[in-house]
Design goal:
- By secondary structure, the chain is α+β, with helices and mostly antiparallel strands.
- 18% of the residues lie in helices and 23% in strands.
- The chain is built from two helices and three strands; from the N terminus they run ββαβα.
- It is globular and about 45 Å long.
Length: 71
């Protein structure tokens, strides 16, 4: 499509664990680039569907993986 835009290399994300047994709950990790985040997601590092973390764009609001990162 002519209106397709390449993903911005400038977008950075932060994450924090959102599981009851997380030893470092509340600790924010990042910022990381989208490519790195997607690679971890594909490896199920954040859970099968990214359910183990909350993510946000740097300076943005916390949300679920699907709300913030997934396209």
């Amino acid at each position: 499509a002519e209106d397709w835009q390449p993903p911005s290399a400038d977008v950075k994300y932060e994450y924090k664990w959102d599981t009851p047994d997380a030893g470092d709950a509340g600790q924010v990790f990042g910022p990381f680039g989208e490519e790195e985040m997607q690679a971890w997601h594909e490896a199920a590092y954040f859970g099968v569907a990214g359910e183990k973390v909350k993510v946000r764009n740097v300076g943005g609001e916390w949300g679920s993986w699907d709300d913030v990162v997934a396209t």
